[in-house]
Protein: protein-histidine N-methyltransferase
Organism: Halteria grandinella
Amino acid sequence: MELTAPEILGFPDQSPTIKTLDLLHTLSGESCPIHYHVLSNKQHLSKTLSGQNFESDLVPGVYEGGLKLWECSIDLARYIVNNREAFIGKRVLELGCGQGIPGIATLKYGQAAQVVFQDYNDEVVENATKRAVQTNTGEELMGRCLFISGSWESIAAQPVAEEMKFEFILMSETLYNTSYYDSLVSVIDRTLKFDGQVIIGTKTFYFGLGGGHFEFQRFLSQKKQSGQFHLSVIEKLNDLKSIERMVLLMRRGEAPQEEKQAEQMEDEGAGEEGFQLSF
Ligand SMILES: C[S@@+](CC[C@H](N)C(=O)[O-])C[C@H]1O[C@@H](n2cnc3c(N)ncnc32)[C@H](O)[C@@H]1O
């Protein structure tokens, strides 16, 4: 289904195409529509790319892919709709938000108190994130949002007061580049409440880039000496058309014993499966 952008948006460029997905609440069957925009690199990233490859989905260190909607953000938004009670009255941060569909789901269907949207590029925040939030929630809920742009390195360097920390951090398709893990985990460590939860939509593995669930798991295990975070798989999505996708939960502290055992059993089995998947 395609809609026309409402007049109230007031963005200077021509209104882009809006598409609508139904996140559908699994138990009740209730319809939960969410809108996203089809944006063009040439029109909406002209300052960021300034003549560089306009066709590319990602130019590392310059443009990190936020204009486009990536599939794991839909998985994550569906998970949020199905667990919407958890977000009522909570403060939420979406890291690497792009169009911010998961954060929007916590506002629109989860009644979050405040959502802070972060993306690497200010052009993405201006053209993609703000536009998607307005189209989905209107002016009233827009007042509960804050928008920030910049690298995780720069955000991790800033102090955060305890009362400004978040109960939930969301992120989708942010685990593709292992060289960002250090700064990503530093931002999370700085901004997450002590008992807060990070919910992640990701692919198991990103071909050609090297990151993904396994690498992030390995990274966190190596950091364990400092007693930081553990990761659990809460949903696996495999449509057999593309690489397996997952929703992950990341929390502070050691994994419970039964989770460790399940993980170990899975690792032993995953060797063969991973082999089949990759080659
Ligand atoms: C592949 S896009 C995913 C966008 C969106 N979450 C989605 O799933 O549709 C990766 C996102 O990660 C963010 N990102 C990647 N590396 C980053 C870094 N070093 N600092 C800040 N943000 C970064 C970018 O903001 C970008 O929007």
